[in-house]
Amino acid sequence: xxxxxxxxxxxxxxxxxxxxxxxxxxxxxxxxxxxxxxxxxxxxxxxxxxxxxxxxxxxxxxxxxxxxxxxxxxxxxxxxxxxxxxxxxxxxxxxxxxxxxxxxxxxxxxxxxxxxxxxxxxxxxxxxxxxxxxxxxxxxxxxxxxxxxxxxxxxxxxxxxxxxxxxxxxxxxxxxxxxxxxxxxxxxxxxxxxxxxxxxxxxxxxxxxxxxxxxxxxxxxxxxxxxxxxxxxxxxxxxxxxxxxxxxxxxxxxxxxxxxxxxxxxxxxxxxxxxxxxxxxxxxxxxxxxxxxxxxxxxxxxxxxxxxxxxxxxxxxxxxxxxxxxxxxxxxxxxxxxxxxxxxxxxxxxxxxxxxxxxxxxxxxxxxxxxxxxxxxxxxxxxxxxxxxxxxxxxxxxxxxxxxxxxxxxxxxxxxxxxxxxxxxxxxxxxxxxxxxxxxxxxxxxxxxxxxxxxxxxxxxxxxxxxxxxxxxxxxxxxxxxxxxxxxxxxxxxxxxxxxxxxxxxxxxxxxxxxxxxxxxxxxxxxxxxxxxxxxxxxxxxxxxxxxxxxxxxxxxxxxxxxxxxxxxxxxxxxxxxxxxxxxxxxxxxxxxxxxxxxxxxxxxxxxxxxxxxxxxx
Length: 618
Ligand code: AGP
What we know:
By secondary structure, the protein is of the alpha/beta class. The chain is built from 19 helices and 25 strands.
């Protein structure tokens, strides 16, 4: 939530910051703002512009009233927490004398008492935000003679909650200072210039060299240097790394939406997620799982914690992991898990599933698990993000940057990582023979091709979306691994098309949801493969039952299974794959449907209302 950018170097800071904000806008788009150190007048003043709404509004304003030239600046794109998304509450916020400007991602939990303290000392606040107090505190420190770095260290020691802060001081024009606690922040290292960003997309067109910061650290960037300290001022070092994707990955590449591009990238994303993780005989090699075989053998329970789409990937994983390893596997929403006193021991493996690696609820869940002595393994797409950094081990999903707010390739690659983890555990614990594991690996190897086959039929799904573009409600039904697919199909429609959509386990229909069925209601039905006939027959009965009550049935069924044809108003053919792997292909038409329906409804598919890509506040 919220994108932040900082720059100091030889270029025009305004264009670097605005371009960075454009690449981070998916993190929040309630308002946008920029502050530059006015180096032209030498007055020590900050030039600032901010506007409610999307970045385009700020750019329009900057076109009308130009800011002075500057080589040092900060910017912000907001997902509102405290205060309405209007111009006043937009960041940057200034200190009392407008000498310091500051942007913030997160929540300052003790802002009310700090605000009262400042107001009683005569400070006047101009916004309803928690951020403005940090700007005033910071300026008060520099006014006493502290440099911006020291001032930031002092202020951070007074703040409670989650925050990334980035600030500039008008009287110290070549320095940008940032700090982080429980919120993302990364440094981009250039030549004669340095950058700050919520993630590397902020500066990827300038440098692919990055520095990952730890918890409770302050970083100071100048043109030629980067210095890191703890909040107490102790010098420390970040971890340097090379970003393994380039600018083209952060471009739409001719597609209308990032989401559509990301859907079509899924065959290669799935391939990359598999790459180098098994040998020619199908034996898994997950070297990055730095938990010893002995410890893996002692695990007696797995708990997957995640939110949203990642949670649905976890629900699929449960079927596979329990089947292959016979270890009980629970899947829980991170925010529910954290606050219900879950039973965890040293032999519980907690798997934190997160595309962004920054979801606050999941982060808090793994901290709680670690306090109880459990081992934590992250499945994550974002290198160097907080969740893998705080976990004992990580399986990266290698999907490349996911920019559309709705997760697509993130989900598919999470599924692959879960299958690999399940098979690896089965290999280590000997619950499956090597040749059985090799057979599943061989099936997984075919997945990129199968996903491509589904994508080749996209036009048919688009036509279906056109036909239902006026619908007010859609249901999704599945059994077994088809159930989480139904939940994910419904979530995609809710977040993109803003219509009522619900996913149900088909077996649950007669326990209530069948009352929702009325004439013409579109219902997507995921039919299990023929290999699981007991499931398939029950699903076919459910389809007959809802059709008899007027539902318009859109049936996803594998190639060659014609038994359902008489009961399907529409058929979507899926490649023949084993039941446990079916979600990888079954979810793709649902992603395409949601993307196309939302497009036809005139919605912003990449930036749906009220949402942000990474949810960094609880
Ligand atoms: C998916 O389309 C969502 N926008 C959302 O549910 C997301 O999956 C969830 O917030 C979890 O994010 P994470 O994977 O980055 O932790």
